[in-house]
Specification:
Keywords: Metal-binding, Zinc, Zinc-finger. The chain is of the alpha+beta class and 404 residues long. It has helices spanning 56-63, 130-142, 161-173, 186-200, 222-238, 299-303, 351-361, 368-374, 396-403; strands at residues 66-79, 84-85, 98-99, 102-110, 114-120, 151-158, 177-180, 250-254, 258-260, 263-268, 271-278, 291-296, 338-339, 347-348, 383-388. The strands form 5 sheets. Strands 5-4-1-6-7 form a 5-stranded mixed beta sheet, sandwiched between helices. Strands 8-11-12-15 form a 4-stranded antiparallel beta sheet. The longest helix has 17 residues, at 222-238.
Length: 404
Amino acid sequence: MAHLENEYLTKKYQKWDHFKDDEEDGTALPASAKPTQYDHAGDADITIVDQMLLTPAQLQKYKRMDQTKSEIWQIVVRKLRVWSASSEGAAEGDEAIPCRPYAILVNNIYPLGQVVSKKICDPPQIFPSAHEILALSLDAMADPPSSIPQHRPDKIVFADKKLVGELRVSYAALGIECTYLTESEGIDACISELSGHLVRKDMASIGAVSEKPGLLSLGLTNDQVVEFYEACAKYAELQPWRRLVERQAIQIDATTSLALNSKPQSSVQGGSVYVSVLGHVDDPSTEDSLKGLALFFTRTDLQRRVLPPGQKLALLEDAKLRRCATCDKKAGVDKELKRCTRCQCVFYCDAQCQRNHWKDHKINCVDPSKQAEQKAQVWGARELSVFYGNITAVPFDDLDAIDK
């Protein structure tokens, strides 16, 4: 498993039973630094499940507790920013399958502004049930932080409307309002602190790229990141590297253009793009080679891969095969595209297309005569490569965006 120590991927989950706060981490974990708002209008999206999860004994016990007016708890279920072992999927003696453990946080967002209870789920890869979440909240009422008497909060809120629907009846029986509330900003800090605690205690680990910036750092939205990974997942499911060789290509017609917020001058225009496989294997049973795809923005880019010493660029003498390197259009009837006078390997509709493309093309524009003299490798195309590996090689920021 790339970038992880197997010793951290133990399948003995009794380790969570011995989980204690780090003595060095005595500071209270922050709640929201900014006010959040109730979303009463969102009740229309909540399906109330008519189920009572409290036993008669629990109902009697907790209703006797004093209730602190205006006290608000927020219960959040999140994946931690660490890797540990899944409880299923790997046979005994085999390498354990990594997962990000689910954790439940009970956060007193008013008036204390701190986490009053937390639990790492067991099995860690399974989202906790409503019954498990209810049990943790009851434990927090019965065993509050030191110097605070047992009591019920006035409200318990969730950022997950499904949990609101599953638990509203049970909390209402205790006189506790249960509703939806946007997640407080301090939760991210709580998750990071708890994750770091597990790593310091050698109870989990992080990969080499886990905390590196993901696609969101480029200015993409959550929806765009999710759509990108869904497309990559579909590509991996089809396994084209088993049927196509690396010099074959697939033409894809894009209907819209895409620009990055952080790089206004960088955009991909609508039109045709081209994809070739990486990691073709003749024997399907051989799966140790790196798999992936290379995306080229124009047919010219596709034809101008990295050139080995002594190999010349294709000059495309047949005018019917030429396409504009900027807009990917062919020449009109009885017209010819204009060739780049320096490299002689890309073509343009007009001077405007050439100006638009020059910022990208100048790093690839090589005089063929000088290339022959240098006898060195030069970059002949701009491409986007996607490699498939273990899930631990994906940054946590991207994984969180997909989950949301």
